[in-house]
């Protein structure tokens, strides 16, 4: 018997970037995420690539981006996106909404997140023990334009386990990203959004 696969092609967004095509063998099947103990999770991430979604807050009219300083590994101590891990059975779009709200306490509708970039990371350190075992992650970055009141709310409510809350959100032009030696992945995403 021939299998039929259902697809859902992500529409090309305003800025030309799109998510991968999604294929469903059975559209009714649901995968329920399994939460592992810290030891099991540490073993799992030594065996598999962790898929993440991140949001880069932008001000399109000023051509600036807003970053938060990371508290947790990886990327500890550097200005970074806001995001987290994709759960099994979760779409990228649902994941970015969930992660952004968890990290900032701000609920933003899915339609406001625009796909911007996909990046592959090999981190030397990770938050889970053994920390020096490193982490391989694949990140899908979305751009998100917020109003001034929304940005202030995000700056006040960043997750203290993930970000240096005293630093809040910092606005960067491209020149400032380079001058402050911000991670090249962020600069690449900036260039994709504003090119």
Could you please describe the fold and organization of this structure?
The protein has a single domain (50-194), classed as Nucleoside Triphosphate Pyrophosphohydrolase. The longest helix has 13 residues, at 92-104. The chain is α+β, with helices and mostly antiparallel strands and 195 residues long. The model has no long low-confidence stretch (mean pLDDT 91). Helix content is 25%, strand content 28%. Strand 3 and strand 4 form a beta hairpin. The protein contains five helices and nine strands; from the N terminus they run ββαββββαββαβαα. Strands 3, 4, 5, 6, 7, 8 and 9 form a seven-stranded mixed β-sheet that branches.
CATH topology term:
Nucleoside Triphosphate Pyrophosphohydrolase
**Considering the protein shown, what is the CATH homologous superfamily?**
Nucleoside Triphosphate Pyrophosphohydrolase
User: From the coordinates shown, what is the CATH architecture?
Assistant: Alpha-Beta Complex
Give the CATH class. Answer: Alpha Beta
Helix content: 25-40%
Note the run of SSEs as H and E. EEHEEEEHEEHEHH
Could you report the average pLDDT, rounded to the nearest whole number? 91
Main structural class: alpha+beta
Counting DSSP H or I runs of 4 or more residues, the number of helices is: 5
Biggest sheet, in brief? Answer: 7 strands, mixed
Taken as a percent bin, the fraction of beta residues is 25-35%
User: What does the radius of gyration come to?
Assistant: 17 Å
